[in-house]
Automatic annotation (TrEMBL):
Official protein name in the record: Solute carrier family 25 member 45
Gene Ontology CC entries for this record: mitochondrial inner membrane
Any one GO MF annotation of this record: transmembrane transporter activity
Keywords of the record: Membrane, Mitochondrion, Mitochondrion inner membrane, Repeat, Transmembrane, Transmembrane helix, Transport
Residue spans of the Solcar repeats: 5-86, 100-194, 202-289
Species of origin: Saimiri boliviensis boliviensis (Bolivian squirrel monkey)
PROSITE patterns: SOLCAR
Membrane topology: Multi-pass membrane protein
Location relative to the cell: Mitochondrion inner membrane
TM annotation in the entry: 64-89, 101-121
Predominant subcellular localization, coarse grouping: mitochondrion
Pfam families the record matches: Mito_carr
């Protein structure tokens, strides 16, 4: 298996773009709950989005994540797979007979998580900024939202905040994703190993369930830094200015208590199962065709 032959097609197949579309309304509610204090909970947030912005309100900011997921997942799964290859010197097929150690799986997952964060950061920033625009769809005479669409949002951030502005929140994103993608792959491989007879490939049902739980385990542990990441990405726009990740943590806890770190936990977990079940299923099939 070679690095380059693998990287791009794998992204498209393992993109889970369908899951991403289905999961996007949940993601929008989560981002709002994490960064805006006006909503009383999940139901209140959903009702208000629907009333003021119609069903389309839930799909704000979706185009960039869908367009970039192939590249982001190529980096994640490509780096993970190749890091494991380097660490264990066994191919994907041989690995069923000689499973790698959990330490190696964790390290390979962390490496993938660390590197994908830089590809994800600008797309994620634009997604969050658009998801947070509460204006209803433009009607004649109504106030226009600050950003007219993803390209306009990217161009405005570039102009107003400089090229580095596009990486706002990238450090919090890296801290969020490095360990939690290690956890992601450990959970996935561990569950597959547990429920698959020696030397065989896991069944589709096993892959779906293991992938779903991997998503949940990873998102549960990622949620505290997910809150901080979203707040750093919105920094400056609503007046509040954080001096860094630590300052954002301290001031969020001071104002809202430690419970602030759990904002979006339920919704993150509910979204994680289907999205990641689909992602791992396509990843496994692809490895069997290519690997
Ligand atoms: C590491 N962290 C938990 C943030 C993400 C793990 C899963 C990533 C997947 N693309 C999804 O959107 O669910």
């Amino acid at each position: 298996m070679c690095v380059f032959g693998w990287l791009f097609p794998s992204g498209y197949a393992s993109s889970g773009a369908v899951g991403l579309v289905l999961g996007h309304p949940f993601d929008t509610v989560k981002v709002r709950l994490q960064t805006q204090t006006t909503y009383r909970g999940i139901a209140d947030c959903m009702v208000r989005i629907y009333r003021h912005e119609s069903l389309l309100g839930f799909f704000k900011g979706m185009s960039f994540p869908v367009a970039s997921i192939a590249v982001v997942n190529s980096v994640l799964f490509g780096v993970y797979s190749n890091a494991l290859l380097l660490l264990t010197a066994t191919s994907h097929q041989e690995r069923r007979a000689q499973p790698p150690s959990y330490m190696h799986i964790f390290l390979a997952g962390c490496t993938g998580g660390f590197l994908q964060a830089y590809f994800l950061a600008p797309f994620d920033l634009i997604k969050v900024r658009l998801q947070n625009q509460t204006e209803p769809r433009a009607q004649p005479g109504s106030p226009r939202p600050r950003y007219q669409g993803p390209m306009h949002c990217a161009a405005s951030i570039f102009q107003e905040e400089g090229p580095r502005g596009l990486f706002r929140g990238a450090w919090a994103l890296t801290l969020r994703d490095t360990p939690t993608l290690g956890i992601y792959f450990i959970t996935y491989e561990g569950l597959c190993h547990q429920y698959t007879p020696e030397g065989q490939n896991p069944s589709s049902a096993t892959v779906l369930v293991a992938g779903g739980f991997a998503g949940i385990a990873s998102w549960v542990t990622a949620t505290p830094l997910d809150v901080i990441k979203s707040r750093m990405q919105m920094d400056g726009l609503r007046g509040k200015v954080y001096r860094g990740v630590l300052d954002c943590m301290v001031s969020s806890v001071r104002q809202e208590g430690v419970g602030v770190f759990l904002r979006g936990l339920t919704i993150n977990s509910a979204r994680a199962f289907p999205v990641n079940a689909v992602t791992f299923l396509s990843y496994e099939y692809l490895l069997r065709w290519w690997g």
